[in-house]
Specification:
Blueprint (H helix, E strand, L loop, with lengths): L2 H16 L4 H12 L9 H22 L1 H17 L5 H30 L3 H21 L11 H13 L7 H11 L4 H29 L9 H25 L6 H19 L8
């Protein structure tokens, strides 16, 4: 892996983690398209190490952006535990974020090996890009914008959390499916995205720490000479992730998700066309 490849993959991760287009799908499709090996074709552990590093980069970018919100909701959550009651909007939203995280965490822990080995094939990613792009467009167009972030209830959080578990399939998009679910219950576009991004933080951070710990326990180490590429990729993912969050929250105040749905359909068609023409294999 060259330094340029690391930076490109870092930018891809940052751009697609919060945009509703599937970061996991793009991190598979980009190397597949250009026939890159992220680190080592014969050492899957090293490939996973780089993937974890990129995700932690976007996690850092998001934490920086949402620092005030994180402090506010953590404080509200601990206050709620202290007095054993939910007494404010912030406390209810804090519990909504906790409850919404649970389905995805359970699904990820139970299905990690199956997801890694069976669900990351280009043909399947293309189908998921198309299907969930259409779902996002239809729900966004039909749903009202009558509710704000403060109106999200615990039942809504359960529904959105279950949707987040579906996004473990590459191509679905964690942000895309949780935004779709939030829009489905009437939350306006900007607040649907904000709740989606906040909800992703425990999953991204927790998964990164969990997978990172598993890799550290193993015997594989990052080979000499790859440190610079890893650092460049992480930096690129953190900066681009931060900028995408800033852009999307501003964009969604006035506009809809149609461009993202169109992009998903075009990307899916491009992948299927390459496979049908024999330019690239349908599987990895």
């Amino acid at each position: 892996m060259t330094l340029l490849q690391a930076v490109i993959l870092g930018i891809v991760q940052g751009l697609t983690e919060f945009a509703p287009v599937s970061s996991s799908g793009h991190l598979i499709l980009v190397p597949w398209l250009f026939q890159w090996c992220i680190v080592s074709a014969s050492n899957e552990t090293l490939n996973k190490t780089f993937d974890v590093a990129l995700h932690m980069g976007t996690f850092v970018g998001a934490v920086v952006y949402f620092a005030r919100d994180i402090v506010k909701y953590l404080g509200a959550w601990f206050r709620s535990i202290g007095h054993r009651a939910v007494r404010s909007v912030d406390e209810r939203l804090a519990w909504a974020l906790v409850i919404g995280t649970i389905p995805g965490a359970i699904a990820g822990a139970l299905g990690e090996d199956f997801i890694d080995k069976k669900l990351g094939q280009p043909w399947l990613i293309a189908i998921m890009l198309a299907v969930f792009g259409i779902v996002l467009y239809v729900v966004d167009k039909r749903a009202r914008q009558t509710r704000e972030l403060r109106d999200i209830r615990l039942a809504d959080a359960v529904f959105i959390g279950i949707a987040q578990a579906v996004a473990l399939q590459p191509g679905v998009s964690r942000s895309g499916v949780t935004i779709t679910a939030a829009r489905g219950v009437g939350v306006n576009r900007e607040d649907a995205a904000r709740f989606s991004f906040l909800l992703s933080l425990p999953i991204i951070g927790g998964a990164g720490l969990y997978k990172g710990a598993k890799l550290l326990i193993g015997s594989e180490k990052i080979p000499a000479g790859f440190g610079g590429a890893f650092a460049a990729g992480v930096t690129a993912s953190a900066v681009s992730g931060f900028l995408v969050i800033w852009f999307l929250l501003a964009y969604l105040r006035r506009r809809d998700f149609a461009p993202f749905a169109i992009y998903r359909l075009l990307a899916a068609a491009f992948v299927i066309a390459l496979i049908a023409a024999g330019v690239r294999a349908a599987t990895i």
